[in-house]
Amino acid sequence: MLKYQKNIPPDIIYSPLVLLYQGTLFSLIAHLIMSGIAVWIMTSIAKDGDIKFWFVGVLLILSYRLIISLLFKQSKHIENEEFWQRLFLLGVFLSGAMWGALSLFFIELDDLTYELVILIIVVGISSNSVSTLNASLFAYPLFVFPAILPFMPVLYKHGGDIHIALFIMLFVFLIMTLTLGRRAYNNTMKLVSLNAENSDLISRLEFRNTSLQNKNEEIFTAWHLETKGKQLLEQMFESTDVLIAYMDKDFNFLRVNKAYAAVEDKLPEDYVGRNYFSEYSDDENLRIFKQVINSGKAVRLSAKATEHRRFGLRYCNWSLQPVLDDEGNVSGLLLSLINVTPEKLAELDAIKKEAYLYAVMETAADGIIITDASGIIESINTMGASIFGYQKFELVGKNLSFLMPVSIGLGHKKIMRDYLLNKSSSRIVGRTLEATGRRHNGEEFPVSVTVSEAEIQGRIVFMGIVRDISKQKRDTDELIRSRNEAENLNEILNEKNKQLEYLSSNDALTGLANRRKYNELIEREWERAKRNKSKLSIIIIDIDHFKAYNDFYGHLSGDECLRRVAQLLAYSLKRATDFIARYGGEEFVCVLPDTDMESTVLVAEEFRKVIEDAGLSHLKSQTADVVTVSLGVASMIPVPGTSIGDLVSRADKALYMAKNNGRNRVCVEDKQE
Predict the structure, then answer these.
(1) What confidence tens digit (pLDDT) does each residue in 485-544 have?
(2) SS3 assignment for 195-241
(3) Which of 670, 527, 515 shows the shortest CA–CA distance to 583?
(4) Are 64 and 94 in contact, with CB atoms under 8 Å apart?
(5) 624-661: b (≥16 Cβ within 10 Å) or e
C-alpha cells in the first residue's frame, strides 16, 4: 500500500510522479556517499583540482534535485504535472552525466584495480537507480545512458582482453538493466492502479457509512420534531380561541376543542358521536359540506352570517378543510370558526356612518371642507369644489390657502399657527366670517365661512362650511344667471346619479350586469314565468383553470381575460329578453326566459365554441392550450314549492359535472323538469 503524503493533494497521491519524488532522498544519499568514495579513490591518482571540480558539480546537481523535491512536496495543488516531471528528469540526466564524466579520468589511469573500483561504483549507482526510477518510463534511461556509455569507448580504446571483457560486461549490464527497468515500470504502474482502486473503494465505504449515520440522525431528528409538533398541536388545539370541530364523512363529531364546546356550555365529549346537522340544521351549510366531501377542496368564507339560537346573528370567519387518508381520499372534515361579530358590526357601523356622512356632505347646499391641523384639505364635497371652480380630486391634499389670494393665504397660515399654540386667542373657530376666495380662473370673490373643530382619534381636524355670498350682492340678472347655473349643476348631478345607478348595477371590470342586478332580473323573470307557466332556463359558465391563468399571466392579464370572455358571451346573445351577468370571480350566468332545455343547450354550446374559437392563449390549462369554459345548464317551469335556488342549484350541479368530466363541455343535470 502506498503511503499518503500530507503535502500532496489526495487526488494525486497514487501518481507515478509522486513515487519518483518519494525515492529522491534515498537516491541523493546514495549518490553523495558513492561520489565521496570516488573522490577519495581518485584523489591519489588524478589531479586534485580536477576531481574537486567534479565533486562540486555533483554537489550542485544533488542540491538542485533536493530543492525541487522539497518544492514538490510543499505544493498543495499540482496543476502542471508535466512541468514537475521535466524538472525531475533534468536532474536525473545531469546526475548520470556527472557519473559519466568520471570516464575522463580513465584515460589517465593505468591501474586496473582503480578502474574496477570506479566501474563498480558507477554500476552500483546505476543498479540502485533501477528501483528508485522505475515510476517513469524515461527516468532510468536518462540516467544510465550518460552514466555508462562514456566508459565503453574508453575501455575499448585501452584494448587488452580484460578491458574488452569489461566493455562487453558493461554492454550486457546496460541491456539487462534497461529490460529490468521496463519490467519494474510496468509492475509499478499496476501497483499504482491497484492502490488507486483500493483507495477509491475505501472512500466509497467511508462515504456510505457517513451517509448512513447522517440518515439515522435525520430520522431521529424528524421523529423528535414530529413528537414535539404533535404535543404543540395538541396544546394549540385545546388552548386556542378558535372553534375547531373534527367530523367524519357523515358529519358526525369525532372531536371538538374546549372553545367550540364552551359556546353551548357543554363539554367536548358531549359532542362526540352526534351529527352536526342534528345540532345546526342549515341547508346552505349542508350543501357546502357535501361540496367539500365531493371535491376534496377547502372552503373559506369571511364574516359568514349565522343565526345562533342563543346569541342571535353572529359573524364568523369560516373554514372547512377536507381531511385526507393515506391514499388521498377524503376521510373527514375539519371545521374552524373565528367569531368576528364585534369587528363586523363595527365595520358595518363605520360603513353606515361613512355613507351617512358622505350623503350629508354631498347633499349639502353649502361647500364643506375638512382639513387637518396644518390646513391640508382631507375631504371636500362637490359643492365646495364647485364654488372654487375645481373638481374634488384637484383640491384634496392641497393647503387651504390655495383657495385664497396670496396675501390672505399667508395670513391664514399665521392664524392657524397662533391658534394651535394658544386656543384662547382664537379668531376663527366657532364664528362665521366673511373672507375672500380665489377661483380656479384667478377670480376673487366673497365667501362666508363657519369653522368648527373636532378631535378624532387624538388628531385635530377642522371643518369649514363655505358659502359663496357674492350671489347676495348681485342684482336680479345675476340671480337669474345663478339659478340657471344651479339647474346646470342639477343636470350634472342627475347625470352623476345615472352614472352611479349604472355603476351600482353593472360589474366595473366586465361591464356586464353585476350580482345585484342579476338578482333583480332573475327574480322578475321567475315571477313572470310562474304567472305564464313558461320555461325559465339558466346557464352557469366557469372559465377553466382560471387560477392557473392568473398565477402564470398575472392579475392584469387575468382581468383582460375576464373582459374578453364577457364581451364574447354578450355578443353571442340573440334576443333582447336574454341577459348575462357576472356571477362572481371567473363565473358568469346567462338567463334565458321562455327557452326550453334543448334550445338552452344549443345556446350554451355556442358560448363554449365562441370562447374556444377566440384562441385566447392559456399555456397552463390542463384542458387545452387556449382559454375554455365549462357550462352547467338547467331549465324548469316555476311551480309552488320551487325557488330560484333550486334552478341555480341544478345548474351548479351540472357545472360540476362538466368540470369533473374533463371541462370545456356543456352538461345538464340528469333530473330536469
Answers:
(1) 777 777 877 777 676 767 778 888 998 999 999 999 999 999 999 999 999 999 999 999
(2) HHHHHHHHHHHHHHHHHHHHHHHHHHHHHHHHHHHHHHHHHHHHHCC
(3) 515
(4) yes
(5) eebbbbbbbbbbbebeeeeebeebbebbbbbbbbbbee
**How far is residue 253 from each of residues 282, 307, 314, measured CA to CA in Å?**
16, 21, 22
The Cβ of residue 368 has, within 10 Å, a number of other Cβ atoms equal to 19
CB atoms within 10 A of CB 402: 16
**Pick from 10-14, 432-436, 533-537: least confident:** 10-14
pLDDT single digits (tens) 196-205: 677 677 777 7
> Secondary structure of 90-148 in the HEC alphabet?
HHHHHHHHHHHCCHHHHCCCCCHHHHHHHHHHHHHHHHHHHHHCCCCCCHHHHHHHHHH
Alpha-carbon gap, residue 435 to 458, rounded angstroms: 29
- Could you give the angle at which helices 597-614 and 555-572 cross, rounded to 10 degrees? 140
Q: What is the pLDDT of residues 405-421, one digit of tens each?
A: 877 776 776 777 776 66
Contact 538, 591 (CB under 8 A): yes
Q: Cell 477509491 sits at which residue?
A: 200
Rounded distance, CA 580 to CA 562, Å? 14
How far is Cα 304 from Cα 492, in angstroms, rounded to an integer?
39
Question: From the candidates 586, 587, 669, 673, which is the catalytic residue?
Answer: 586
Is 586 considered catalytic here? yes
How many angstroms separate the CA atoms of 464 and 369, rounded?
5
Residues shown for the chain: 673
Predicted pLDDT at 580: 95
What's the topology of domain 506-668?
Answer: Alpha-Beta Plaits (3.30.70)
> Contact, 566 vs 582, CB < 8 A?
yes
> Hey, what CATH topology would domain 364-473 get?
Beta-Lactamase (3.30.450)
Three-state DSSP at 371 gives strand
The identity of residue 593, as a single letter, is: P
What is the C-alpha to C-alpha distance for residues 398 and 161, in angstroms, rounded to an integer? Answer: 126
Other Cβ atoms less than 10 A from the Cβ of 16: the count is 18
Contact 669, 663 (CB under 8 A): no
Lowest mean per-residue pLDDT among 113-117, 196-200, 237-241, 656-660? 113-117
Q: What angle do CA 198, 203, 205 make, to 5 degrees?
A: 95
CATH 3.90.1150.10 fits 240-345, yes or no: no
Q: What is the distance between the alpha carbons of residues 177 and 129, in angstroms, rounded to a whole number?
A: 10
Tell the residue number behind the cell numbers 349565522, with chain if given: 306
Query: CA 271, CA 623: separation in Å to the nearest integer?
Result: 44
Residue 333's φ and ψ, nearest 5 degrees, are -130, 145
Residue type, 27: S
pTM of the model: 0.32
Tell me the CA distances in angstroms from 366 to 386, 491, 495, one per residue in order. Answer: 10, 18, 20
Has residue 673 got a pLDDT over 50? Answer: no
Integer Cα distance of 434 and 425 in angstroms: 19
Backbone angles phi, psi at 79, to 5 degrees: -85, -25
> Which residues, other chains included, contact 482 with Cβ-Cβ below 8 Å and sequence gap of 6+?
471, 474
Q: Which residues contact 475 (CB under 8 A, 6 or more apart)?
A: none
HSE toward the beta carbon, residue 10, CA cutoff 13 A: 3
Which residue matches cell numbers 504502474?
Answer: 189
| 3-class secondary-structure state, position 407 | helix
pLDDT at 613 over 80: yes
Dihedral pair phi/psi, residue 637, rounded to 5° = -100, 120
